[in-house]
Amino acid sequence: MDVQQVLIEQVNDDIPSLSMSERLKISNQKKNIFLLKRGIWLYFLLLIFEGGLRKWILPALASPILIIRDPLAIWLLIVAWRSGIYIFNRYVVLMYIVSIIALFSAIFLGHGNFFVAVFGVRTLIVHFPVIFIIGKVFDRDDVLKMGKFIIWLTLPMTVLLFLQFNSPQSAFVNRGVGGDVEGAGFSGALGFFRPPGTFSFTNGTALFYSLSACFVLFFWLGPRQYLNRVLLICASFAVLAAIPLSISRTLFFSILITLFFIVLAILKRRRSIVQIILITFVLSAGFLALVQLKSFQTATSAFTTRFSDASDSEGGIKGTVQKRIVGTLIGAITDNQKLPFFGYGIGMGTNVGSVLLTGKNQFLVAETEWGRLIGEMGIVMGLIVIIIRLTITAKIAIASYRQLSIGDFLPWILLSYCAITLPQSQWAQPTALGFCVFVAGLTIASLRIPQKQIIQNG
After folding, report:
1. Which residues contact 118 (CB under 8 A, 6 or more apart)?
2. pTM metric for this prediction
């Protein structure tokens, strides 16, 4: 029996009074939603394993695989439109208007390269709406299923991280994009390189484990039936081990922010004080156990050295915060005072754009996301895109806080990651773009209670 027939029978059982045409229409919509959910899962899997395809499996196709999620995102948009799922809200419409203006201004007033402009504008017109597709199609149950899968995925990912950290850059596990034998690791400390995991670049490691940490901490706070405790303990160890193995300050700060959000949640919902004590005990025990291992001690030394050296160059923790957060928007504006009104052209600030325009991989506009947006599109359009991202983040934050007020921690914990990535994640980099879109969509979806639960609770 095919999926279509099963869906028609489900509709017949649920609403027997409908006509055959109405039943067929509803079954078609359910089928499309079924396909959209599978498409979202595929979007995530390609996000995780895109780097592996480019490094190990299909290195000769490394360049086209870079945009492997683009056709899928377009397909998601088409199926959502055909299903009557309304995603063209005022944010998407405004982003499309800005994108069209940016596309033509880049071609006729900016860098003048059509392919660079298209590559740059695709993040706004193709991937950005996927946030709302995930938010409309997924619900809380789907988010929890995804969270459980991520928990399982954390275990082999940490094993891979361990092998990459302790292997030379010439080893197969450290192959770079296109099979580069010089390795994919990025400068770390004490002669060790930051491992990229299954990703093309090392930022994927920090992005993945930041999301993993959110689900690990949520499942510790949730009821026992959510996840097997043995698996949860193993995943907790894996996330802890990933912090020094990754040699990533970004991951460290991201997990600290999530823990801070949990403390705020506990202060509001004091009944969960037992869970926070349990989390503290497990994390402390896990750290004490890991610190006994020589390889972990080596990784910890590399991480602390990297942390100390980088902090000193930025003026300590305070300087790091000011440079990475407070100074980002100010610098984006002050550094572009002599910028043309329409900017230098969308796409120019991406790695692909720089290679197509100059033949070299370099920063042609700015290293920071907000600086790139303003540099590419000008002060007015760049600020519009930034404000759209900040406004959506604020709306998600308000909704998540309301859910926290009724005892639902999931949106609030995901917000701890979403609130950092959605406003200023570097959309010029495909992995960062993918995680930003996916996490924002998951956070919105976590606010949607499944219909069957509403009926049961009602």
Report:
1. 103, 347
2. 0.89
